[in-house]
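Shall we go through a protein fold together, starting from nothing but its sequence? Label the sequence line and the structure token line clearly, so we can match residues to local backbone shapes. Would you write everything just below, so we can both look at the same thing?
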Amino acid sequence: AFREIVRTTARPAFDRLGWEPAPAEGPRDRQLRGVLLDLLGTVGRDPDIVARAQAFRDGAYTEPDVVAACITVTAAHGDQALFAEYRNRYETADTPQEQLRYLYALPAFPDRELTLLAAEYAVTTVRPQNSPFVVQRALKHPEHGPPVWEYVREHWATIEARFPPTLLPRMYEGVTWLVDDTSVESVPRFVADHPIEQGERVVAQHLERQHLHRALYERERERFAASVLRR
């Protein structure tokens, strides 16, 4: 029911923009097209969007916002074989832009083990300047964020030694979406017990956002669930 709400809300805006940019279109419209495409394909699971995203991903289409969204949408519906293909494409890409598109899509796969594998791959193999952003995206996974957080806690010594200190706050941005009972207690406690030298203020802002998201969840969950069930 919630996915239907997303599709009903976002699809008209996407249809107005279309898949192809208009001649006089500005950068904001191009960016919006990618955002809506990502939303409809990953959250709304629009079957038409998902099917066309797979075709656009491997075609000759070059609009960067659409290509990036199509790569993520396809990942969100992918399996272990596609995960291996994405990892290979990251490792053999011809351009840095293509590299990052496939790398940053690895945490989007629906299987829990693949999300954890993406985090492990980032911590052990990916270049340190890119690794924190992969873990950040894995923490933001709508279903598998909490187990990724457990992985971060268990491998903190490796993460702290390998990730650039200036990018650790960027990794922590992913915890803002962890609103389950365990995470809202363990994340602030872990941060207090493992302070970082740089970006303490930014990390504090992330914790505040986590607190606000949890408050919204507690305030709205019953009303939201009721409204969805009435549809």
